[in-house]
Amino acid sequence: MSSAVLEEAEQIAREFEYPAAEVERGVREYIREMDEGLRQEGTTLSQIPTYVTSVPNGTEKGLYLAVDLGGTNFRVCSIDLHGDTTFSLTQSKMLIPRELMASGSSKDLFHFLARQIEAFLRIHHNEHFEAHERRRLQGTAEEELFDLGFTFSFPVRQMGINKGTLIRWTKGFNIPDAVGHDVCALLQSALDELGLPVRVAALVNDTVGTLMARSYTSPGETGTFLGAIFGTGTNGAYVEKLDKITKLATIEHSDYDKSTGEMIVNAEWGSFDNHLSVLPNTHYDQQLDAESNNPGWQMFEKRVSGMFLGEILRRVLLHMYVNDFSDFLKVGASDVVVPENSNLYRQWGVDTSFLSLAESDKSPNMEQTKTALKDHFKIENVSDRDCQAIKIVVHAIGKRAARLSAVPLAAVLISTNKLQSEDLVDIGVDGSLVEFYPNFEGYLRDALREVPEVGVAGEKKIRIGISKDGSGVGAALIALVASKEKAKVKAQQAL
Ligand code: BGC
I want to staple 153 with a disulfide (CB 3.0 to 4.6 A). Which of 70, 306, 323, 427 is the partner? Predict the structure, then answer.
């Protein structure tokens, strides 16, 4: 089926190709930026030390609280770790009001979070809550506090397991007065204002939580090596040798357990190659960045993660539509128009779930795509040919994202020599893209095999598993590590 519109779509699709040689070039640069980030602060790849120096093995036990601030929702949960790789989790989830995400003060935001924690405790742990209230009012007996893991999925400069200052907001958040402040202290003071029996014990990035949760639940003896998120944003954390994190000597930080010789590092790979020395950079990528609220930042994330793929697609479709020389959405059915109030005209108006849907639509007339075009964009009577054209560009954008995702994975595996030293490397992943985008992992694995130091043999050693609830279970596990360390220090002081 040859037509000018399909040819146009194919031509745009070619702009999104990310061939093997480029993957390899990306890997080289990633390794360079990775090393730079381990040596000094303020680099494009932050390589943040997390002070978490061991991964769980499934025997950990206890009841912990966890909260998760990182995307569109705020989640509060309590997790009971049973000590046999299983856990039970009670949670409540709520939308973060938009005005708190982008225009309020940090006080408003953290007060809102503390209120949600209070409501959760009243509903799910009322006995503990009321006992604490009684003791507090009587000023008697020692307080029994819940240890809480705070999953805060933004770049922070971490100074200890529960201490870290916000470097910058990402993913559409923008509350300037929080930047430079210790987010654990902000949450703790909001909790204290309400008199809640909660101690913020650990500061957790969602990737570190994913790594920990996967390690707790994953089958077999092998500890998990890397945790990654491919969702609204993208990032990864991995186990690094302590002696390679040389910048630790220059950072003022709390004490941590050095006995394992390792530490989990949060790469913040969303900011890989912000200076664009190797990343692909189409006209659509450039426009998206220029009109974002953080131009020049999170350049890798802007090509890979869920928050941005819909926006790239929107810009491509709009470009095709407004092009007078293109028939796209114009002929074939006389009354096809994009109405003025269509989401196609609205920045961020295309959700990445639309890409997943179009990519997986196998029906001959692309009925699902047509329904989605009508429901989400008020575009009706779209021809089969135009749906095919949409699918061609969707595929190109999604595939590029998946192939780009192979770059940090390959680079970290090569730099740590993991594929040489192990028979199996376990990776925990989470996020809507890797979970729902058709064949995301398949395209990623194709690209991994094309990297010579990984190859077919290396790729086979990589086990990738979805790690659900990383931000809950993982945060609980880190709160557990933190409270054990606190007890250790206390015992040492008592000697
Ligand atoms: C944040 C990371 C986070 C990732 C995935 C990025 O925008 O900077 O801290 O891990 O999103 O949620």
Answer: 70
